[in-house]
Automatic annotation (TrEMBL):
PANTHER family: ASPARTATE-SEMIALDEHYDE DEHYDROGENASE, DEHYDROGENASE, PUTATIVE-RELATED. The active site is at residues 173, 286. Gene3D superfamilies: Dihydrodipicolinate Reductase, domain 2, NAD(P)-binding Rossmann-like Domain. Pathway: Amino-acid biosynthesis; L-methionine biosynthesis via de novo pathway; L-homoserine from L-aspartate: step 2/3; Amino-acid biosynthesis; L-threonine biosynthesis; L-threonine from L-aspartate: step 2/5. Residues 21-30 have a biased composition (Polar residues). GO terms for biological process: diaminopimelate biosynthetic process; isoleucine biosynthetic process; lysine biosynthetic process via diaminopimelate; methionine biosynthetic process; threonine biosynthetic process. Homodimer. It comes from Iris pallida. Residues 43-158 form the Semialdehyde dehydrogenase NAD-binding domain. Its EC number is 1.2.1.11. Keywords: Amino-acid biosynthesis, Diaminopimelate biosynthesis, Lysine biosynthesis, Methionine biosynthesis, NADP, Oxidoreductase, Threonine biosynthesis. It is an enzyme of class 1 (oxidoreductase). This is aspartate-semialdehyde dehydrogenase.
Length: 378
C-alpha cells in the first residue's frame, strides 16, 4: 500500500482545470458544510485505506455526504499507527485483523484478492455487508455483481439491520466503464455481440504504477534507463498488452473479466463479447472503443438521445470541432463520457454502432461504484 501523502499528491496533480472539461461533477462543493457524521448512520470500515482506491473511498464518502456514525481505517501492519485526517478529524490507521469488524455495518474492501478472500468471509460472519473491489468473489453465483445504474435489483435482497452479513462484488473497472454506456443501448435494442478495445491507465495497477509512470517519464526525458519494477517493460512513451496473465485461449485475465462479468451483470449468457486490453501511458482514467451489434435496429441519433438521458453518462460528441471524450476530461469526475457515436458501416441497416467511452478508473471504476452500492443499503 502506498502512503496517503503520495495518493493526495497524485490526486492534486491530476485534477484538470474546470475550464478544460465539459463533464459535470455536482457532488463536489468545497464550501458546503459536511453533515456526514450522524448518530443514525452505519458504522463503516475501509480495508486498504492507505492505497489509491482507499483514499478515493474517503474522497467519495465526503463528496456525497455519506452518513456514518463511525469510520474505521484499516491497512497492513506497516501502516498501522499512522494518522489520517478525514473531514477535519484525525483517525489512527489500524492493523487489519479478524477483530476489526466487530460492530461494523459496511466494510469497503480494496486491498487485493487475497486479503478479500481471507477477511471478507470473516467480516460477513460478524454481520458486516462487504462491498469488495477485488476479483475474489465476482463470479461466485451467490454473490451479486453490481453497477447501481445497471442492475441494482441484483442486490435487492441485501440490507442493513437484518442481523446477518453479506458480500457484494464491485465489477472490474473496464467492465463498469463499458457497461455504463452500453447498457442503456442494450435495454433499447438488445446487444447480441460486443467488441471492446481498452486503453487502460496506470491507475488500474495502483498508486505504485502511477508513481513508476511518473518516474519513468522523467528518466526517459533525462536520457536515463527507465525503472521497471511494476511492469516488465518501459511504460513511458509506450503501450503494450495488458499485464494480466495470458490464459490458454490467448486472452488475458483482464479481457476475460469483460466477457464473463458482462454476461453475469446483464444476466445473459448468450451475449457474445470479445475484448483486447492495452496499457497506455496515461496516469488516470481508462478509454474504451466499443463496437455493438444489436437485435433491433438502432440509429445513431436515437442512440445519442438515449445516452443523453442515461444516469451517470455525459455525451461529448462534437464532430464539427472534433471534440470527443479524453481520459484527462474524466479524471476525478463521476460521469462516464461517451462520444464518436456512429453507425457501423460494416453492418447492413442500423444494426451496429461504434462508441468511444472514457471513465475514471479509480472513481467510477472503483471507489464511486462501491460507495453507490453502499448507498443502496441505507
Amino acid at each position: 500500500m502506498q502512503s496517503s501523502a503520495y495518493a493526495h499528491r497524485l490526486h492534486s496533480l491530476l485534477s484538470p482545470s474546470p475550464s478544460r472539461t465539459q463533464i459535470r461533477n455536482p457532488t463536489r462543493n468545497p464550501t458546503r458544510i459536511r453533515m456526514s457524521l450522524r448518530d443514525d448512520g452505519p458504522s463503516v470500515a475501509i480495508v486498504g485505506a492507505t492505497g489509491a482506491v482507499g483514499q478515493e473511498f474517503l474522497s467519495v464518502l465526503s463528496d456525497r455526504d455519506f452518513p456514518y456514525r463511525s469510520i474505521k481505517l484499516l491497512a497492513s501492519r506497516r501502516s498501522a499507527g499512522k494518522v489520517q485526517t478525514f473531514e477535519d478529524r484525525s483517525y489512527k490507521i489500524e492493523e487489519l485483523t479478524a477483530e476489526s469488524f466487530d460492530g461494523v455495518d459496511i466494510a469497503l474492501f480494496s486491498a487485493g484478492g487475497s486479503i478479500s478472500k481471507e477477511f471478507g468471509p470473516i467480516a460477513v460472519e460478524k454481520g458486516s455487508v462487504v462491498v469488495d473491489n477485488s476479483s475474489a468473489f465476482r463470479m461466485d453465483p451467490g454473490v451479486p455483481l453490481v453497477i447501481p445504474e445497471v442492475n441494482p435489483e441484483a442486490m435487492g435482497h441485501i440490507g442493513l439491520g437484518k442481523g446477518k452479513g453479506a458480500l457484494i462484488a464491485n465489477p472490474n473497472c473496464s467492465t463498469i466503464i463499458c457497461l455504463m454506456a452500453a447498457t442503456p443501448l442494450h435495454r433499447y435494442a438488445k446487444v447480441l455481440r460486443m467488441v471492446v478495445s481498452t486503453y487502460q491507465a496506470a491507475s488500474g495497477a495502483g498508486a505504485a504504477a502511477m508513481e513508476e509512470l511518473e518516474l519513468q517519464t522523467r528518466e526517459v526525458l533525462d536520457g536515463k534507463e527507465p525503472t521497471c519494477k511494476i511492469f516488465k517493460q518501459q511504460y513511458a512513451f509506450n503501450l503494450f498488452s495488458h499485464n494480466a496473465p495470458v490464459l490458454s485461449n490467448g486472452y488475458n485475465e483482464e479481457e476475460m473479466k469483460l466477457v464473463k462479468e458482462t454476461q453475469k451483470i446483464w444476466n445473459d449468457k448468450d451475449v457474445k463479447v470479445t475484448a483486447t486490453c492495452i496499457r497506455v501511458p496515461v496516469m488516470r482514467a481508462h478509454a474504451e472503443s466499443v463496437n455493438l451489434q444489436f437485435e433491433k435496429p438502432l440509429d445513431e441519433d436515437t442512440a445519442r438521445q438515449i445516452l443523453n438521458g442515461a444516469a451517470g453518462v455525459v455525451v461529448i460528441d462534437d464532430r464539427v470541432s472534433n471534440s470527443f471524450p479524453t481520459p484527462l476530461q474524466v479524471s476525478n469526475k463521476d460521469d462516464v463520457a461517451v462520444g464518436r457515436i456512429r453507425q457501423d458501416l460494416s453492418q447492413d441497416g442500423n444494426y451496429g454502432l461504434d462508441i468511444f467511452v472514457c471513465g475514471d478508473q479509480i472513481r467510477k471504476g472503483a471507489a464511486l461504484n462501491a460507495v453507490q452500492i453502499a448507498e443502496k443499503l441505507l
